[in-house]
Description:
Elements: H1 11-33, H2 39-46, H3 50-78, H4 80-100, H5 104-132, H6 136-157, H7 159-162, H8 164-167, H9 180-209, H10 231-264, H11 273-308, H12 311-322, H13 325-331, H14 337-361, H15 367-395, H16 407-431, H17 444-447
Amino acid sequence: MPELARPEPSRAYRWIVLLFISLAQGGNYYIYDSINPLERIFIDKLGYSATGFGWLNSSYSAAAVLTLLVGGIIIDRIGTKKALTFFAVLCLLGAALTAARGHLGLMITGRTVLGLGAESMIVAVTVALAKWFKGKELSFAFGINLTIARLASVAADNSPTWANRAFYPQGPSGEPSWQNPLFIAVGAGFLAVFCSLIYWMLETRAEAKYELGKGGAVDKLEFSQILRFNGSYWLVVGLCFTFYSAIFPFRTFAIDLFTNKILALHGGAAASEAMRVLAHEKAGFFNSLLPLSAMIATPLFGLLVDKIGKRAFFMMFGSILIMPVYLLMAYSNVTLFVPVCLMGVAFSLIPAIMWPSVAYVVDQSRLGTAYALMTLIQQIGFFIMNLLIGRANDYSHAGLNNFGGYALGMWIFSILGFVGLTFAILLRIRETGPHSHGLETITTSSQA
């Protein structure tokens, strides 16, 4: 007799799976962003330079490039549940090495290990989601997963507020701690491993009882296909490189910039210790507005563009929004809400359009290579910009006693904005001409 088809997992079972893999990814995100509020403490208490601090995220990006070449192979070889747990353990190890001692070399080693685990862990989570969800549920599941992960970034940026005692164990007038906040990141690593193990058990149990879908295809970089991409793809990649290089490396240094911007308006070097602590907390809040806004606005912008088209136009509009924000921070006394909100709109708008646009300009059979190459080039941008901005801040002696020293780094970010706008304009010209792929015209109604 033929074997009876096994049932699919229940909806409740699948949402429990989603919760645990999303919490695991949230632990990953928290570890990455946990150093953002610590730049000035590292400089003042551990003797780091801004360039040394930049190395902490540049080393992550260098490792992430390697994972794009081998991470997918590991997932294919050992399976999703084992891969997810293995990469979560690497994230925990990276967090532990970073927190172990105040030695820059050891911290860079820890961040490198984190980069080896974190990016591949994100790929493993993506593959797992495709195994458990399909059809219209898949997009919603991805949205929930990303929301939970970004909440962890918001928590890390705001850690000077909710974990104030970790940063200032002796109170506002006492010495700040560089290590206690990193111990919280180690805790996030343990959470990631625990949730990965729970997922392992849930998948093992389901494999014995239910019919599971196939995991999503891992994006793999095939070098033989690189030169076959068209001009529109390379313009989208250029915008990706400039846009993300102006956002994520900025977030690396933003809390120190924001803190000193706030203090410059409240007494500068003469500000009280209590004011310094308050400025640190406010700076973390401002930095958290970027992932927080993206959680809310990115899906809405995606729906808008699917409805009306004009993708290249909106990418051009988003590039215009980001151009003035860095110079406003450097040269004006306007409230930080203005440039941060402009950046938040751009950070929500451009990614909502840019990543799906690749599917319009590249053949379906080459999407894996297209996305892998785009991500690799993005990580190269992170590597370069984290070091370049750190070097610029050191060269200009940026700090509370010399707030103008931040201007050089802000000009570098602004130049990236101008270059990104150029890519967006060229993309719009191409997509309104004879070589169009439908970025400006295809809508949900036209696809129906």
